[in-house]
Fold each of these.
Amino acid sequence: MTPKNSAALLNRVALLTRWLSTLGVVLWMSCCNGSTIETSTDGETHFLRICTPESDSCGPGLSCTCGVCSAPCTAARDCSGMHSQAECVSTVERLSGSCGDTQAESICDVPCTTDRDCGPVASGLQCSSGFCRATGDPGPSDLGGVCAEGQVSGDEVVWLGDVFVAQDGAIITELEALARDAGALAPGETYRNYTSSTQNSLSMSGLLLSERYSAAHSEAPVKVVIMNGGGSDLLVRSCDPSPTADCPLMVEVVTGANQVLSRMAADGVGDVVWFYYPDPMDALLLAELDVLRPLLEQACANAPLPCHWVDLRASFAGHYAEYMRSDFVPTAEGAKVAAAVLWSAMQRDCIAQ
């Protein structure tokens, strides 16, 4: 046998060995990890969902402790059926101040350092004070309530945003399909699309997203706005020499956000769903987005109308090559993921149901 053939044989043997080893682990996990939490009817567990003790929204095997759906534990093995990253965490030592009169000394939880750590656990989770948590306040559907239906028609819902949505409209198409499946949108009914690949800035005169909103409002009443914003401003301008919260660009973008949110409130818009981009690959753009993100999130939180912040980072983490064509354009699969996250937030907060 030649050295070349011998090397090829060794490589194939090594590959087969790794495959058999992986198969063995998978079979062991499927056979031996029997203590799993039952899933809900939508196929997802309620682990770490926002809850209140008065509601019964956590599902089988879980209870509401420290504001989230979890379960008491005495050791890490008690949490193995919830998620591979779950640990048994003391409610006294590590969650002081957040648990009130808890009935458990320790519960199953998922520690984290960044939002990326929470992505594999469930969609819509972010790293908050060292633990994976659902963002924002719990909505009626999280707390076992029933959303009012038929209060908002399709032509009262308006899309605003930049190339992330406007490039091919796939996110809009996917979200409308989810709304129809849920009975929130009638067959043939659509949301109004005012997204634009050019007129989407929060800070540049003549290209303002607020002007797109004004056009939508002048044509018909608007009750719900689904939007993103801020990305195009960063593509055209930058902070010199480095991004800071007080650089002129950031100040002007936030000012523009506050202005358009105030205008929507004055016009009687009932809800704004503001979703934010996945992390881009470009290092400078990422640094700028990291500065702008909390500023816009705070603007949303302080808005004079209900503004629901939806961060897409956790759902896209680890799947960038699959979900994104470029830093600001999703693939067809990415559009499906973004739409699913948005619709989940709208269902949770009873928006346009």
Note: The domain at 154-348 is CATH 3.40.50.1110 (Rossmann fold).
Amino acid sequence: MDMTQRLQVLLDDSEFDEIRRIARRHHMTVAEWVRQALRTARRDEPATEPQRKLLVLREAARHAYPTADIAQMLDEIEGGRFAGEGA
């Protein structure tokens, strides 16, 4: 069972009136408009901190990873896929 939490946000009158007008224009309550706005903001927020991403990229750039010609890699993948067949 999901629990719900109440969030209280204090806005000045002009800001609240503007949000109310926007919510009406979208045919929704102020509460629903705020919930959707928060979901959008949360969705658009990066999953990790940019500094953490840069650290991981810098660490990866310090190493040499095995590579091969793309045709060779695809041949090996296909060869492995069918290796167990016909046995």
Note: Residues 13-81 form one domain.
